[in-house]
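Convert to structure. Protein one:
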Amino acid sequence: MDIKIDLGTVVVFDLDDTLYNELDFLKSAYQSIASLLEPKDWKPLYSKMFSLYRCDINVFEFISIAYNIEIGQLVEMYRNHHPNIQLFDGVLDVFDAIKSKDGKIGIITDGRSKTQRAKLESLAILDYLDGIVISEEIGFEKPNLANFKAIENSISGNVYYYIADNLKKDFIAPNALGWKSVALIDNGKNIHYESHKHSDSHNLPQDFILNFKEIKII
């Protein structure tokens, strides 16, 4: 798809499962926890943790009993570890192309401030961003209009795009505000994979892409 960029164009992105796979954050967290609990030989524990997760068995409950550690402590370890995650192919090419034409880039994401900002830092994209809206910091989660109006207030523009993945909550607000909405189709690893349940007109984006290489900045 073509996106025409000029000084008045603001392209806003979701974070989890849009710029990278959130499953990779989970795997990174599990590796970090396993390394702390079994520093000399962490891989067998990590393997078991990930297998339990894939089987919908409570991983933290297992760890809590096996290692006599509070579940709350494990949750904090999960949220606060330094993530090892990578951008999807083509993301930086799109970012560079937007910036080369004087466009602006924003992020709207749900989650805890410390965790989401650690992800942005790990992905090394902070220097590209003209505005960041995180649900914990603003006090609202998508699909609340406030999150999107916060971007409009912080980044002035004539045309706004929102590129995201979750049909349940990502496109209701931008559609209502007259933004252009684009869905990145699940690559088979998304945390939220029930898009078929949210096919009402207000949930649907205006366009779909399979990957970032389908975006052409003009």
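Protein two, convert as well:
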Amino acid sequence: MNPQQIKIMLELQDGMNTKVNADWKSQGYEWYRAIWVECAELLDHYGWKWWKKQSPDTEQVALELIDIWHFGLSILLQSGAKPELIIAQIQNDLIIKTEEKDFRLDLEKFVAATLGDRQFHIGLFGRLMAGIDMSFDQLYRGYVGKNVLNFFRQDHGYKDGSYRKHWHDGREDNEHLVEAVLSLDTTKAEFKDELYAALKSRYSK
């Protein structure tokens, strides 16, 4: 787990939150509430209904976990702790391992802890990643990709409606994002900037 990658994610999260509200850290936003609502959506993607046939949609579960990570980082940043302390905390607590065979039970433990103290439980989140065989690199790629795309949309007219979600070849921006991410080296410090440039190049064709 590269501390530089954690630093980049924290900077991106702060940047996105600041874009919404420059004074976001003092607003008392209920990030914990966003987390448990996402967990409910995640459970629907995983499946829990015993009265009908369901198979876990692990791709959608992974996307929901990435969304939860956004809110979790916001809780950590809102605490006022210095970035280096948050980085050390994530390195120490994010252990991607679980002995629980039922993913849903790990999810319920995570939700209960979140509602109990309204904090982000990094260790319990790591168990959820393990439950769907999600690596830190997958979390990082997915997280940075979504953030950079959000910034790109905002910079290219998303707010005023001039942004084109379908690009020159008729494919959606999300599809271009996936291809662009796979073509780049995620371990480089410049990854987010190179990804933005790749999206810009594809969009302008």
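The chain is about 65% helix and 0% strand. The two ends are 36 Å apart (CA to CA).
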